[in-house]
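Revision sheet: structure tokens.
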Amino acid sequence: MRPGRNFLNVMILRMLAVSLVSVVLGAMLACGQSEEENSLGVRFPLPETFDLLESGFHKSTFGVGADERGGRMEVSVEVMQEKHDQHICGVPSVVDPFGNVLQILAPRQIAEKMTDTHFFYESRYAFFVATDGFYSVKLDNQGCLIDEVEAVATVQWAVHTVRERSQ
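Predicted:
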């Protein structure tokens, strides 16, 4: 099955956006600012994009250090998929460093971004970091893979560290 023209245009725009973010982060590094943490103590790694037709399961992992324990972790997942009557592609679940599922997310359709050929779904989840280690988002895409529904998922992590107030 060949990707539609609109799908390819959106993918090219996403790749350009990620490239622009990389250039901006590189410029910040050159100016002495950290790639991963801003002045408010928030770490934003680059978003990860997955072509969901490659596999039934994908995983995005984000490592948290001991100094970030107690901070607020946020994850957002956006899925752009070919219109299909039966499937929502790439349903995400958030997993802690011990392999426990913290939450299976219920994607919400974003009607404003919908096109004639594609649906857009968004999932967001925030929680407090209980332990250091690697947190993951697993994308379950078995049904869409079997029916060959084109879909792309983008996962974005952020962690807000706890800053001590000066007295």
